[in-house]
Amino acid sequence: MQRKEPGKMNLADRWAGLLMRTGPDREKQNIVWNMAGSFFYAFASMVLSFLVMRIMGDDEGGIFAFGYSTFGQQMFIVAYFGLRPFQITDGKREYRFGDYLLHRILTCIAAVLAGSVFLLASGYTAGKAAVIFLLVCYKVIDGFADVYESEFQRNGHLHLTGKSNTFRTILSVAVFLSVLGISRSLITACAAGVAAQAAGVILFDMAPLRMIKTVDMRGDRSRLWPLTGAGTLLFVSVFLDFYIFSAAKYAIDANMDNAASGYFNMIFMPTSVINLAANFVIRPVLTYLTDDWERRDYGAFHRMLLRISALIGGLSVLAVALAWFLGKPVLGVMEKILGSGYGGSLVRYHVPFVLVVLGGAFYAVLNLYYYVLVILRRQKVIFGIYAATALLAAVISPVFVQRKGIFGAACAYLLLMTVMAAAFTAGAVNRMKAAEKAAEKASEKVPDEGTGEDGNVSPKT
Fold first, then answer.
1. Per the domain annotation, does 446 fall within a domain?
2. Are residues 51 and 145 in the same domain?
3. Labelling 350: which of 43, 209, 304, 305 has CA 20 to 30 A away?
4. How many CB atoms are located within 10 Å of the residue 281 CB?
5. 3-state DSSP helix/strand/coil percent for the chain, to nearest 5?
6. Whole-number Å distance between alpha carbons of 141 and 155
7. Domain ranges, residue 282
8. Which of 140-149, 271-280, 373-382, 428-437 has the highest mean pLDDT?
9. Least confident of 69-73, 352-356, 449-453
């Protein structure tokens, strides 16, 4: 699509042009806006359940917490089908944006249908089912927006991804909380939040994408099946990943009351901070890691990977130390903000709080090496790790919760994250070594093809 001259731009084009602006240093804007988007998205995840509990009480707060951060997020994963890392690392343009978009429309429909079937069979009250269904819709729209945001990043406009996350989150959360405060109806507020989320996609995703001339909007239905095949193992893997991540929450919902879901969600909040910090480090360098690997510049690849690992490790140690020494005061402050009726309700979970933070640190590590395996296109390795750990989660999480309640849930979460972090790190290291040895043997067999004067493999153009 050709850009119009400034004087001929309509209102939609002017709006999109405003979002496109970066100033002279796009790379800096990419980093700044990615940080802002990640912060607001994670901040909303942390505080929404907290605020709903304060306004509506622990029972409805627990329903919202489960619907927003657990089941709704599980349906988000169905909608986005695990294709974000595949799309943003599709530097050779194997698939066009129109192909990804057509595929995403179908997976979003599937997510809404799957959520509906679960709720019909759940035995929940009508009110609880209605709230959770609306939260599923909210999250599915978020999954639809992801296909645009992935395309922004693939085209070097990570700043637009950050702006979308920032402004969509602010808009939808502001509308949700305003309506909740006025109506005191959780169902009404969730419906308003869904409408605001949809408006945000139009304003902050669809509008600016039209301005990027390198985006090919054509979709081909014949490519849906190959794209599904390319992403199926990633989807199943990410679906299992979130199930494992949330297995303790599902166990609490099945074996304890709604209030317990709310309390566990409160002590689970720091995992969002850790993941936020990890994403600050990981997301901006994914395309660089991909480029280094494809060029066979293994030295640069390993140096960057070690730097990222060290940063995540340092942030994790800091987070666990803060949770241990400042956890009780922080939980006490949260109780006071919730209201006088919550005295002692959170401080008693200080030890589970620390265990959850430690588990979040291991999750950040496994997330990094998950992306490494995606870059190496080792979907079968990823799937194998998730499948084995999902079985472990299904066995231990209900047992731990039934025997030890919220403390047992925290122990189960920590154990699962530790197992996965070790498996992903070992798997990535082994596959990198195998790929490098294979490349070295190939270069020895054909010494003068694609080599420079020093005999080293030349970077791919």
1. no
2. yes
3. 43
4. 17
5. 85, 0, 15
6. 22
7. 230-441
8. 140-149
9. 449-453
Q: Which residues of 320-358 are buried (b: 16+ CB within 10 A; e: fewer)?
A: beebeeebeebbeebbeebeeebeebbbebbebbbbbbb
SS3 297: coil
Tokens of 331: 């939980």
Start-to-end C-alpha separation, the chain: 27
- Residues 197 and 291 reside in one and the same domain: no
Q: How far apart are CA 16 and CA 34, in angstroms?
A: 18
Instruction: Find the Cα–Cα–Cα–Cα dihedral 224, 230, 231, 232, rounded to 10°.
Output: 90
Q: Hunting for tokens 């119009």 — which residue is that?
A: 4
Report how far Cα 420 is from the mean position of its chain's Cα atoms.
17
Do 296 and 405 belong together in one domain? yes
Residue at 45 is within a domain: yes
Q: Is residue 183 domain-shared with residue 42, that is, in the same domain?
A: yes
Residues 319 and 197 in one domain: no
- 427 in helix, strand or coil? helix
pLDDT, tens digit, 9 for 90 and up, residues 336-380: 888 777 777 888 999 999 999 999 999 989 989 988 988 888 878
Q: If you search the block for the tokens 């070295």, which residue do you land on?
A: 440
CA distances from 351 to 150, 264, 288 (A): 38, 12, 39
DSSP of 397-425: HHHHHHHHHHHHHHHHHHHHHHHHHHHHH
CA 108 to chain centre: 16
Residue 459, domain member (yes or no):
no
CA-to-CA separations, 218 to 83, 97, 99, 414, in angstroms, rounded: 18, 7, 7, 45
**237 and 264: one domain?**
yes
What's the CA gap between 383 and 375, in Å, rounded? 15
pLDDT at 461 over 60: no
* Whether 48 and 136 share a structural domain: yes
Residue 399 maps to a domain: yes
**Could you report the per-residue pLDDT of 134-172, keeping only the tens digit for each?**
999 999 999 999 999 999 888 888 888 889 999 999 999
Residue 20, C-beta contacts closer than 8 angstroms, at least 6 positions apart: 157, 160, 208, 211
> For the chain, what is the domain count?
2
